[in-house]
Design a protein that fits this description.
Elements: E1 3-10, E2 15-23, E3 26-35, H1 40-47, E4 52-56, H2 81-90, H3 107-121, E5 127-129, H4 131-139, H5 149-159, H6 174-190, E6 195-198, E7 210-213
Parallel strand pairs: 1-4, 4-5, 5-7
Antiparallel strand pairs: 1-2, 2-3, 6-7
Helix pairs in contact: 4-6, 5-6
Length: about 220
């Protein structure tokens, strides 16, 4: 049976889903989909046979374990440990931080919380990823903005070093491209690939972790 991993890039209005498989040592994209946030059954069907799932969204609201840490900027004092560790240990600072209350979180985060809950309820153990940081490591150079044609093509060039893409990949949105790198990180995470979890293991810290490629 082929190894199968799913990457999900989400927003308030849509879920972009990419499935990759490895068979006989070859890694390739085998399915892409765009779902509405309330199409949970459809998402579970796509993920049914996945050994690994990665989502570009916070997994849970923050418990603000570093609220009293004066060495952090005020913005990051309410952040989860994974967000802080991703910045300090891997040089990728997320442009947002996760609030403590669900209703204080932006709509896309609330969609993410529900997707994590749905997948966990189905017996999966999805991980959290940060595609911008993943591409920064994999590219080893600064890439153009992902919203530009040059930025999308540059990211596809990076992906093609690691996974076979379909012929129509050149027309993909940056959301599908981000979902693909999420699927790649998910596959590597389950097969001991070149990835690491940005997290804290100190007493009083939370259990959040953001997975990211590491230089080889």
């Amino acid at each position: 049976m082929a190894e199968r991993a799913v990457g999900i890039d989400l927003g308030a209005k849509a879920l972009h889903v990419v499935v990759v498989e490895r068979a006989a040592g070859k890694l390739e994209v085998v399915e892409t989909a765009v779902l509405l946030p309330d199409e949970g059954e459809e998402l579970l069907a796509i993920c049914a046979d996945a050994q690994a799932i990665a989502i570009d969204a916070p997994s849970d609201p923050s418990t603000a374990p570093h609220a009293g840490d004066a060495t952090l900027s005020p913005k990051f004092r309410v952040a989860r440990c994974g967000e802080i560790a991703l910045g300090y240990d891997h040089g990728s600072w997320v442009p947002w931080v996760t609030p403590e209350a669900v209703d204080a979180s932006p709509p896309w985060m609330q969609v993410g919380f529900r997707v994590f809950e749905q997948l966990r309820g189905a017996g999966h153990e999805p991980i959290e990823v940060y595609p911008s940081g993943a591409f920064r490591v994999l590219a080893e150079v600064r890439l153009p903005k992902k919203s530009t044609v040059a930025g999308r093509h540059a990211r596809l060039d990076v992906l093609q070093r690691h996974v076979e893409l379909p012929d129509d990949a050149s027309s993909w949105s940056h959301d599908t491209i981000d979902a693909t790198v999420a699927a790649l990180v998910a596959m590597w995470q389950t097969t001991d690939g070149p990835v690491a979890a940005a997290r804290h293991d100190r007493p009083g810290c939370d259990s959040s972790a953001i997975w990211i490629p590491v230089p080889t």
